[in-house]
Amino acid sequence: MSITRKITTNAKKFQKDVRVQMGVALAAAFAFVIAFSWNEFMKEAVTELVSMLGLQNAILLKLVAAIIATAIGVIGISYFAKWGK
After folding, report:
1. What residues contact residue 47 under an 8 Å CB cut-off, 6+ apart?
2. Phi, psi for residue 55 in degrees, rounded to 5
3. What is the rounded CA–CA span in Å between residue 57 and residue 54?
4. DSSP secondary structure, 35-82, as one string
5. Rounded to an integer, what distance in angstroms lies between the CA atom of residue 50 and that of residue 62?
6. Which of 82, 53, 79, 50 is nearest to 63 (CA)?
7. 3-class SS at 31?
8. Residues 6+ apart with CB under 8 A from 46
9. Which residues of the chain fall below pLDDT 50?
């Protein structure tokens, strides 16, 4: 294989790899936007629930909400990690 052909082949592979990595970065950026949206919703939902229940100490409710959100996140990450293979 000539040097020119090797360079062309490697350049095309590099370009493809850059596109794949850019796609991953963009997906992560959208995931952060979605996560921040859900964060705001969860804060308001917990605040509203604390108000409706008349609780004085909301820390336990916030802990439960955090545990549920973490469990959903771990399940989602596990699913998509296997899905990508």
Report:
1. 58
2. -80, 140
3. 9
4. HHHHHHHHHHHHHHHHHHHT-S--HHHHHHHHHHHHHHHHHHHHHHHH
5. 9
6. 50
7. helix
8. 58, 61, 62, 65
9. none
Enumerate residues 6+ apart whose C-beta is below 8 A from 36.
Answer: none
What's the CA angle centered on 35, arms 26 and 75, to 5 degrees?
95
Q: Tally Cβ neighbours within 10 Å of residue 78.
A: 10
Number of residues assigned to the chain? 85
Amino acid 13: pLDDT: 92
- At residue 79, what is the residue type? Y
In angstroms, the CA 38 to CA 34 distance is: 6
Q: Domain limits of the chain? A: 3-83
Amino acid at 25: A
pLDDT at 43: 82
